[in-house]
Structures are given as C-alpha cells and as structure tokens.
C-alpha cells in the first residue's frame, strides 16, 4: 500500500473499474474484485517500479495494463453468462453465440497462462449452456406452449377475468381473480388420471395402546349403579325368566318322556342320537332338540355313549338303579361340545335316511312363547 | 447356517442375515393357519402404512410383521398381494428392485363420480397432475426454475404461503419427492446449485403419459395428436 502512495497516481485499470456503475447484484463481488485487483495492481506497480529501475522498456507497463483489462473483461463476460443463463437457453436467442464471439475476440489478446485460464473457465460454462440448449432441441418434443396451457388451466379453474389487472407483482402474471374453489375444481378432475389406492382409515378411529387408568374408577361406579338398577326391577324380570325357564323345563320333560316311551318299546336297542334329535324338516328345531337333550344328560336322566361303530347313542337312565349311580356320577363329569352346521345336518339326514323327527315339534303356542326372547 | 441354505432353496430374493437368532425348523413354523395369520397381518400393515403414501420398505415389513417367518417371506408377500387384489382391488408393486421398496396402487380403473379421496388430497393431486403434465410435455425433465416459472402463472409461488397448499415449495420438493411422485436430481456445474425434476416411480405406476396427454388435450380443447412427438411417445410406452 505504501508503494501505491509513492507512485502518486492510481492505476488506470482500477480507476476505470471504479468509474463503471456497478450492477446491484454484483456490487459486492465487484468491490472484492476491485480490491483484489487494486492490491494486485499495487504489487504490479511496485514490481514495475523495480523493473523500471532495471531499465526495461515501457512496453511492459502497457502489457500489464493490457492483461489486466483482458482479465477484467473475461470476468465480466463470465458473470454475465452465469447471470443470464435462462435468457441464453432460450432457443430463439443468439446470446450464447455472441458471448462466444466476444471470448474469441478477447483470446486474441491473450499471451499468458493466467488469462488463458480465465478463457478456459468461460469455455466450461459456455459449453454447459450449449449442452443444455442442445438437449432441449434433442428431445424432439412438439412445441408446447406452457403459457397457453397455464391460461387454459386457469380458465378451467374458473378464473374471473373481468377484473382489470391489479398486479403489483411482475408483468408476467395476467390479471384476473381466482375463486376459492379453484384448485378443488382441478382436484375433482385429477383422480381420474391416477390409479391411486384409496387410503385406509378405521371408521371409528383406532384405540390407544396403553390402557387408560382413570377410566377404571368410572367403571367401578358404573357397576355399582348397575346392580342397584337391577335390584329395582326384580318383579318384572323374574316373571319373564320364570316363563322362559318353565318353557324349557317343560320341553325337557316332554323330550324325556318321548325318549322313555321309545325305549320302553324296545329296551335292548339303544337309540341313535342322531335319529333322536334330528328333525329333517327344521335345522333350528334340531338345534333346540340337542339343547334340550343336553339338559337330560346334565341332570343324569339320560346318557350318551358311543357304540361299536363309534356312533353316539342315547338311552334314559333309571334313577332307581343303585349300581348305575356311580356311572351317572362319572358320566356327569364329562363335558362334550357338539357342533353342527347346516351342511353337516343335511349330510346326516342323507346318511342315516332320517325321514321324520322322533321328537315331535311342540305345540304352536309354546313355540311362539319361546321365540319372543 | 442352515437357514441361509433354505432361503436359496425357496428361490426368494436375498434376505438380510442380520439377526440370525435360533430359528426353529420349517416344519414347526409353517402351519397354514400361522401363514394365513401372517398374510392377514401384512395386508393390514400395508393398508395402514399406505395412508401417507410414503413407500414401504422391506426392512420395515420384516421387522414388524414377518419376524421369524423370514424364510416364507416371498410366499407371504405373494399371498398378501393376491388378497389385496381379490379383496380390495389394490396391487402391491415393487418400485425399487434394488432397495426393495413397495407401494400400493389401485387395480381398478377410476370410475366416474367416485370420491375416493377427500378434499385436501384431491387438491394436492390436482397440483401434482399439473406438474406431471408440464414435465412430460416439456420433454420428461424440467429445471426447477422453469417449473416455478410455470407455477407462477397459476398464482403458485415458492416463497409465498399459498391459500390452499401452504408451503408449496415444501410440498413439491419434499412431500411429492418422498412419496416418489417426483424425482429430483442436481444439475452438475451449476452455481448456485440447480435441480431438475422428472417423474418419480410412483407416478410411472399410477398414471401414464397417455393419460396425462389426454388431460392436457382436454384442458386445451385440442386433440392429443396435436402434439405429435408427445403423442407418439405416449403411445409407445404402453406398459
């Protein structure tokens, strides 16, 4: 810096740079570049001074200035190209070609590696842009006017163009007023073009993984009040239950009598369980029969066992026989679950050729009573 | 050790042998009821995972559902896909064969007047369709600056909060990309770095160039053949 002071005049290149009005985007960059160049220039001046003292000709000074100019022009060219990339890519613009020609011209004045390096840097950028331009041509897409497309979309969305432009933004945006449901309109059209899987949601929401603690207290309170409520209604409830129980008991007794009657006719042949309970005319009644027979076995009034063919048979138990009391007790401890669906029911009817029900259907009146649960 | 041999025998893709605990023999593990149970669990898992439309990773499936049934993985996946197709009309598609990522798509053509997605979702799909159309018509790849310039025309700005979409930039660059509707790659040697957008694998599966061209044609009131090269490209790719 002191050397610059002694030289008495600021280097012409730096002065020229300061004089040029700096563009807003690159002011900082320019200032930096200017400072760097200033320092550079200062150093060069110092070197120049020394060389001058070594009595080399004036041509070097001009050379140095010339090189500085070239460098600054290259830098400017590079930044211009980078800033205006979009404009350069426009297929209708020749600006890239112009920039290349400018660089060509500058290159004529280049004689040192330093400036050539800048030229190479510029070439890299320019060729990138060139490649992009080429790829845009290469795609061979028919001309697609995106602006027109946008306009048509806005129309579809229901834009109201009667309003004059109230644009405070750039001039690219056309005037007009988009209604609130604009995107909803497109949204209704869009799903037709997608094979999008509808999302899965639980209708009633999902439950939380941790059991909620405070709820237990509420439950206890509820249970207490429930009991009280039940107590308040015994009179009514009992009546219904009794009639229900009575009907069942009556039915069970009736079935027992049927069983005993059949057995009396032929005491030595036990009755096939299926023959006994199945009603070929009604699946529902078959199930009821099985239900009622289960009471008989539970109360030790009948027993079910398997015969030689592993088919179940049923026979009544005479309660007076002492020897069989043990059996009945042992029998009472066995639990069997019988399952029967319609298909199996039909198969059994086919297999055993069951034509009529051994347990005659109860009277119509009783049936209706039982069905009013 | 023996488990690795078993996997090869089944011909399924290579499974990670990460945590190889002691695994009981095949016979004990693969009763039909147990397999059915796993298939059902997987179907439910996939349906729930698909809610956000973020692709499902095989690692998640293995960790949460398959667990010790690793050797039956391909069988379970195949059957889950069949269930999804036969019961729900959906399809399980692998969009990344290397990283094993799956999505669910609709197997049935979208019938007219069906409201399968709700308001907010529909609006996003509208925006997505517009973006996908733009990308296709412009040659399958656009720069982000070009895309935003186009969206400007529709009153959608990256810097401004949008009345319907909120943070649009986030929606486009993050949500749509995560859902694999869009794919973004950096353009080399650009400063500041620029990106280009293309169709993502989900878009490739859920819609087609032909559908999108039809949309553009409908909007502009023209025949799709008006754009000759796009039309021929759209008809070429009929997968």
Helix content bin of chain B = 40-55%
| Rounded Rg of chain B | 22 Å
CATH architecture of the domain at 120-207 in chain B: Orthogonal Bundle
Strand content of chain B: 5-15%
Total beta-strand segments of chain A = 3
The oligomeric status of these chains comes to heterodimer
Pfam families (chain B): MAGE
Domain MAGE (chain B): 35-234
Protein name (chain B): Melanoma-associated antigen G1
InterPro entries (chain B): MAGE, MAGE_WH1, MAGE_WH2, MHD_dom
Short description:
Chain B: Residues 1-23 are annotated as: Disordered. Chain B: Pfam families: MAGE. By secondary structure, chain A is mostly helical.
Key terms:
heterodimer; A: 373 residues; mainly alpha; 3-stranded antiparallel beta sheet; 16 helices; 3 strands; 62% helix; disordered N terminus; disordered C terminus; B: 239 residues; alpha+beta; Arc Repressor Mutant, subunit A; 14% strand; globular; MAGE (chain B); Melanoma-associated antigen G1 (chain B); MHD_dom (chain B); MAGE_WH1 (chain B)
What does this protein look like?
The complex is a heterodimer of chains A (373) and B (239). Chain A has helices at residues 2-7, 12-19, 27-53, 59-83, 85-89, 95-108, 113-138, 146-157, 182-189, 214-232, 234-265, 273-277, 283-298, 323-332, 342-352, 364-371, and strands at residues 271-272, 302-306, 312-316. Chain A has a three-stranded antiparallel beta sheet. With 373 residues, chain A is mainly alpha-helical. Chain B has 239 residues and is α+β, with helices and mostly antiparallel strands. Among the domains of chain B are: 32-106, Arc Repressor Mutant, subunit A (Orthogonal Bundle), CATH 1.10.10; 120-207, Orthogonal Bundle (Arc Repressor Mutant, subunit A). Chain B is built from eleven helices and eight strands. In chain B, helix 3 (32-49) packs across helix 5 (73-88). The longest helix of chain B is centred in the middle third of the chain and has 19 residues, at 119-137. Chain B is globular. Chain B starts with a helix and ends with a helix. Mean pLDDT of chain B is 83; it is low at 1-15 and 17-24. The chains are: A mainly alpha (373), B alpha+beta (239). Chains A and B meet through helix 7, helix 8 and helix 9 of A and strand 3, helix 6, helix 7, helix 10 and helix 11 of B.
């Amino acid at each position: 810096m002191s050397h610059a002071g002694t030289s008495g005049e600021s280097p012409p290149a730096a002065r020229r740079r300061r004089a040029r009005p700096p563009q807003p985007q690159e002011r900082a960059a320019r200032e930096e570049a200017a400072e760097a160049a200033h320092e550079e220039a200062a150093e060069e001046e110092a070197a120049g001074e020394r060389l001058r003292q070594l009595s080399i000709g004036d041509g070097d000074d001009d050379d140095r200035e010339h090189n500085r100019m070239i460098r600054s022009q290259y830098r400017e060219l590079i930044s211009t190209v980078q800033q205006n990339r979009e404009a350069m890519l426009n297929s209708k613009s020749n600006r890239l070609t112009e920039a290349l020609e400018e660089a060509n011209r500058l290159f004529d004045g280049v004689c040192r590696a330093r400036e050539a390096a800048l030229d190479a840097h510029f070439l890299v950028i320019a060729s990138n842009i060139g490649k992009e331009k080429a790829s845009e041509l290469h795609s061979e897409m028919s001309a697609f006017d995106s602006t027109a497309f946008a306009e048509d979309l806005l129309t579809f969305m229901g834009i109201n163009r009667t309003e004059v432009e109230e644009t405070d933004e750039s001039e690219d945006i056309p005037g007009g007023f988009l209604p609130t449901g604009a995107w909803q309109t497109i949204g209704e059209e869009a799903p037709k073009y997608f094979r999008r899987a509808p999302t899965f949601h639980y209708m009633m929401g999902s439950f939380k993984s941790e059991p909620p603690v405070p709820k237990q207290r509420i439950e206890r309170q509820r249970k207490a009040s429930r009991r009280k409520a039940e107590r308040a209604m015994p009179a009514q409830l009992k009546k219904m239950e009794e009639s229900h129980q009575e009907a069942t008991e009556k039915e069970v007794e009736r079935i027992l009598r049927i069983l005993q009657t059949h057995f009396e006719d032929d005491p030595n042949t036990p009755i096939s369980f299926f023959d006994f309970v199945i009603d070929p005319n009604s699946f529902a009644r078959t199930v009821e029969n099985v239900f009622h027979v289960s009471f008989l076995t539970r109360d030790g009034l009948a027993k079910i066992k398997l015969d030689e063919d592993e088919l179940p048979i049923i026979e009544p138990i005479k309660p007076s026989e002492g020897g069989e009391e043990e059996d009945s007790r042992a029998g009472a401890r066995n639990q069997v679950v019988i399952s029967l669906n319609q298909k199996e029911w039909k198969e059994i009817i086919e297999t055993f050729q069951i034509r009529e029900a051994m347990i005659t259907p109860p009277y119509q009146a009783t049936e209706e009573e039982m069905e009013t649960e | 050790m023996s488990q690795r041999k078993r996997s090869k025998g089944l011909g399924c893709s290579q499974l990670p042998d990460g945590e190889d605990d002691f695994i009981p023999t095949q016979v004990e593990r693969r009763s039909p009821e147990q397999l059915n149970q796993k298939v059902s669990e997987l179907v439910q898992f996939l349906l729930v995972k698909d809610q956000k439309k973020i692709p499902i990773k095989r690692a998640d499936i293995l960790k949460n559902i398959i667990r010790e049934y690793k050797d039956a993985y391909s069988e379970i996946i195949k059957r889950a896909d069949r269930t999804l197709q036969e019961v729900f009309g959906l399809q399980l598609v692998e969009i990344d064969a290397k990283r094993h990522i799956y999505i669910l798509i609709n197997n049935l053509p979208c019938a007219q007047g069906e409201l399968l997605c709700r308001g907010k979702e529909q609006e996003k799909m509208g925006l997505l369709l517009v973006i996908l159309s733009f990308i296709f018509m412009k040659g399958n790849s656009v720069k982000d600056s070009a895309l935003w310039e186009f969206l400007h025309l529709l009153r959608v700005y990256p810097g401004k909060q949008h009345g319907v979409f909120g943070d649009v930039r986030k929606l486009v660059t993050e949500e749509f990309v995560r859902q694999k509707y869009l794919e973004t790659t950096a353009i080399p040697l650009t400063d500041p770095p620029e990106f280009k957008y293309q169709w993502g694998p989900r878009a490739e599966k859920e819609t087609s160039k032909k559908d999108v061209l039809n949309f553009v044609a409908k909007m502009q009131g023209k025949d799709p053949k008006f754009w000759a090269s796009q039309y021929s490209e759209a008809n070429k790719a009929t997968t």
